Amino acid sequence: MTTVDVRAGGGDLSGHGLNPSGQVIWNPTTSVLYEHAVTRGDARIAEGGPLVVDTGRYTGRSPKDKFVVREPSSEGRIWWGGNGEIDEDSFAGLREKVVRFLDEQATLYVVNAFAGADHKHRIAVRVITNRPYHALFAKTMFIDPTDDELRGFQPDALVLHAPELEADPKVDSTRSGTFVLLHPKRTELLIGGTFYAGEIKKSIFTVLNDRLPLEGVLPMHCSANVSKDGENVAIFFGLSGTGKTTLSADPSRLLIGDDEHGWGDSGVFNFEGGCYAKTIRLSPQAEPEIWKASHEFGTILENVAVDERGVLDLDDDSKTENTRAAYKLEAIANTLPTKQAGHPQNVVFLTADAFGILPPIARLSREQALFFFLSG
What we know:
The protein is an alpha/beta fold. It has helices spanning 30-40, 88-103, 132-141, 147-150, 169-172, 198-211, 244-248, 288-293, 366-374; strands spanning 2-5, 23-26, 43-45, 51-53, 66-69, 84-86, 107-115, 123-129, 157-162, 179-183, 188-192, 218-226, 233-237, 254-257, 260-264, 267-270, 274-278, 300-302, 305-306, 312-313, 324-328, 340-341, 344-349. The longest helix has 16 residues, at 88-103.
């Protein structure tokens, strides 16, 4: 094994049961990951500098292939009607397959980062993958540690990521070859059988969904921004594609984050260090900040069409409607550096009401707001 420590904070993987035979690159820089992704043939560089990748047959998450290990320490707090369950023996068997696969790879990438801008509630995350663009995704979507924080870094959550490796449903107790497994007590996640990078960040969101309520924090799937004087915080709930990212990037306000937040005693804080924006039919007129971020170095574009000259076509949905851009929050000029603010004064529910049942804008009473929130 050859260890390359691009930033301080490298170490030994034997504590995770790994003994890689190839090169291990700890905390790689964006430039290194670009070079490796292009050299491998996994990506292209488009005009302006974004890295363009194709996620293959999965262009979105696979929720039916997500399982939680049923084990005594967490059994009573998990909604088993809404989460697929798997036993500890199946987890152990599949983990062994993942470890064996990663051990045999020519290169592994280790990304150390944080989830949660509030230091009282953040978790240290380690992602181990054999794919450079997935390492770049993790580096982009989670919060960068300082060099001091990397020294002696100890992960609270471990993601073992092997996108090419498929499970055997008959042996591994999965539904298909794709698997996203969480062991709550070990705080370990196994991901395989899918190249869609969004599974990495959503798996950590699942961990925070489990942990934060025990700390008195409400985890939320929402975007958030704040007035420039810091007084007026707004949060925007909504399913994918209803406008969370676009509305939170309002240039007249400061962006806290576009997707995942906690609401605790001190207010609202972002879980992430990046944005994961839909790019289909983005325009420089309607969404100037997001459009600009989608055309810059360091951004990952998933399933976006690019011609032989390297020019992007954001209107092309031939691969999927769910084309995505992952970029650092700082790519948006009006980002709030701390990624946290006070308590919300405005809570907005965004809908995609194709039947015209709801009025275009409605101001809800407290009781109505509670009803619609609990109704999803």
